[in-house]
Batch of 4 targets.
Target 1
Amino acid sequence: MIKISILYPNKPGSRFDVDYYLNVKMPLAIKLLEPALKGVSVDIGLSGAMPDQAPPYAAICEFVCESTQAFYDAFLPHAATLQADIHNYTDIEPVIQIGQISEIKILA
C-alpha cells in the first residue's frame, strides 16, 4: 500500500479556505479518484508542537492506494481538472510526497 500526502505549508499571509476544501474539493477528488482509493484523510492544522505556535501546515490530505500505478491511472486523466481548482481554495503551492505504508507493531 502507498500513501499520497499533499501538504499545504502554512505561510504568513497565505490563504486556505477550509470550507471549500472539505465541502467542494475533497468530494470532487474522491469522486474522480475513487477507483484507486482505499482510504482518504484530511488534517486541518490547529497548532504547532506548542499550543501558541502556528501549525506548520494549513492542511494535509492523504490518499491511500494499492500502488503508485493505481493512483496514476486514476489521477492522470483528471489532473488538469483537479489542478485547475487549486486557486479556488488556496494560494499555497502544495508539496506532494508518495510513500510506502509500513506496519509497525506495538508491543504490549
Target 2
Amino acid sequence: MEMYLPDYCYRNKAIDMKGIVIHYFSAINVDPENKFDNQTNWNLMHDLNASKENRLQFPKVLPDRMKRSYASAHCMIGRSGKNMILVPEDKQAYHAGKSYYKGVSSWNQRSYGIELIGTKDSGFTEAQYKTCAKVCANLIKEYAIPLNMVVGHETIAPMRKFDPGIATGNFDMKKLKQMIKELL
C-alpha cells in the first residue's frame, strides 16, 4: 500500500541497487502505548524529517531544537504484515547512513531499506517475515541482488547500529533468507 512520505524525506536521485537493508522502527520513545501502530509509526517517520511547524503528531514530544533527522526507508512492514510503501523504489531513502560492507559503501545510494515495526527486544511476527521475504524476493529478481547482500543495518554499520538485532537474537536472518530462497 502506497503511503508515500513527502519528497523532503528522501533524495530524488536514482539508486544503483546492490543490496537490501533490514531495520526496525517503533514509536516506543514518543508514544509507548501505540509503539506498534502503523499510522503512529508513519507519523513519527514523517515528523523526524519535518521542521517543527510541519510535524503532524509529535511537535510537543520531539525537542524544539531538534533539526531534521534524515530518517526514512523505502517501506515499513507492520506487525500484521501490512507493507507500507514510503519512498519510491528508485529513489534514495535515508536509512543506512555511514555504511560499508563487501566492497560497497554509501548504502543509501545502493540499497532498498525495509523497516520492520518492532523494538530491540520485541522480536518480529510471522506475518512480518513473510511480507519481508516477498519484498526481498521481488527485489532480488528485479535487480539481480545476491542473497548475501540482504543484510541487517548492524552488518553495514557495525558498532554504530544494532538493528534489527541479528547478533542478539531479536531478528532471525537465517529464517528470512530461507523464506526468500523458497520464493525464488
Target 3
Amino acid sequence: MSFKIDFFDLMWLAEAVIPPRPIARSACFDSFSDEHYHAMTENERKQFFEHVQKCHGFTLENEQCRHFYARFNPKNQYRVTCLHNGQETVHECYLFNDSYHVTSSRWIPRDYIKSVTRIHDNLDIRP
C-alpha cells in the first residue's frame, strides 16, 4: 500500500521526525534519503534540503542528519560506474565517510568502482 503526501506536508513531517527520536520516527527520517529523495524533482530536493537544515534539532553531530545532508546536498551527487562479475552498472550515489552510498545502509565497495563523475559539474574523479 502506498500513500500520497503533499510536498509541503512532507516538509512539516520532517520537522517532527528529526533524530534523535524513537525508532519509528527515526526510520521515517531515513526514508527521506533512501526513498523519497528519488521521487522528488531537483527543485523539491533543494527546497527540502534547505528547509530541513533550518529545523530545530537538525545537527550534523547526529549521524542520520549527516546522511540526510550528504544525500540531499546537490554538490555531493555522483554517478558511479561499477564493474562486477563482468557486468557494468551505473548508480547515482552520494559520498559519505569516504564511501559512495546508494542508501544510508548500502554503499559500493571500492574494488568494484570503475569511474566516478560528479553529477552537477561532470568532473571525472578516479577511485
Target 4
Amino acid sequence: MQYARVGGFLGVSRITGPTHNLLQLLLTNMQIPNPICERLLLQSDAGRAQLNEEALVEAVLKGVAEANKELGTSYSVAHIKYVEGDSPPEEVYSYLAQSIVKHLASGGEFVSGSPV
C-alpha cells in the first residue's frame, strides 16, 4: 500500500492484481456526525459498476472506530474521497480506513503532494 498526504487529506492506495482502491480522509479530533463524502471520477471508469456510497461511508466509519478503540485515539472523519469506479466490496474501505489511522498513529510517512 502507498500512503500520501494531499492538502489536508491522508490517503492510501491499494492495488492487488486486478483490484484497486483509493481512499482519502480528512481526519479531526472533533466529533463530526455526517462526514462529507466526495466521489472522484476517472475517465477510465466510465461504464464501470459504481460502489455503494452509503455502504462505503459505513465501512470507513467502522474502520476508524475500530482503529481508535485499538489504539486509544479519538479521530473522527470530516471528509471522505474515493474513486467511484474502484473495486468492490465496500467492506475493504474499513480496512483502508484502519490502515490510515494506524499509519498516522505509528508516525508512518505520508508522501506529500502525490495524489496516491
